[in-house]
Amino acid sequence: MQIGFVGLGRMGGNMVARILRDSDHQVVAWARSRENVEEAETKGATGADSLEDLVAKLEKPRTVWLMIPAGEATDQAVGHLSRLLDADDTIVDGGNSNWHDDERRARRLEAQGIHYVDVGTSGGVWGLEVGYCMMVGGAAESVGRLAPILDVLAPPNGWRHFGDVGAGHFVKMVHNGVEYGIMQAYAEGFELMHKSKFPIENKEVAGLWNRGSVVRSWLCELAESAFAEEGNDLERLKGSVSDSGEGRWTIIDAIDHDVPTPVITAALYARFYSRGNGDYTHRLLAALRQQFGGHAIERAGG
Q1: Which of 57, 172, 203, 224 is catalytic?
Q2: What is the mean pLDDT of each run of 10 residues along the chain (302 residues)?
Q3: Active site annotation includes 43
Q4: CA angle 199, 203, 209 (to 5 degrees)
Q5: 27/190 Cα distance (integer angstroms)
Q6: Among residues 38, 52, 179, 221, which one is catalytic?
Q7: pTM beyond 0.85
Q8: Is residue 172 flagged as an active site residue?
């Protein structure tokens, strides 16, 4: 099978490498970074100079996989491709798009006879070696056409078709919301052990927990690696944690469905606090305690 690949960053570049290493499929690759295109060419890909060049080098019916930032960048790429592709071609979004955006794009492309498949992709930089967990949405025929590529990118039995367009990114959205909660629980637990009176090495705890414990997981394995690399105090790291949107979207959908998600919500809010948000809130709390109870307050600058 031949596939076009747009976006060759840490995820996209490794996905192209896995396809070319582990199969006879052909890849035509393009990215804004010429250096990344050249790197893909060393793996066996056919490089393209533009989206126009990429489409011209693909045989019909064409399949173009996008692995670029969600939102405006993906919208622009889909819009551009819609003017280049023909009926029965397929656009695949493997990034972290909002599932509502998938539905909107698919409706627009349907008028042109262009298929759209959304693939929620998990695996990070480790996916090159162990494979990617892939959550898929789209028409059965379109997904079936893409299956040979999914079979190579995923580990054995590592992808599922969950329904119409949007279903894949919906499942990936919830996946990331759950990930927020798990990571927050680990972080809080390890801090408690770090501050205890016992000489606990968190690297040893993480390693032990992955040997038979009910809380063993790949994230716990990564925690062990992090402590090994950064030390028990993590003193070289700044405690600022960003969020890429999926946690927020999960909470919004949970509200729409009257589903309580206190753990995921608290984990998202903890990330807000980590970035210095809430400082005004805490200053007002200190002022109120001083006003009603005469409690001492600390003033800035001394």
Answers
A1: 172
A2: 97 97 98 97 98 98 97 97 98 97 98 97 93 98 98 98 98 97 98 98 98 97 97 96 95 98 97 94 93 90 68
A3: no
A4: 105
A5: 44
A6: 179
A7: yes
A8: yes
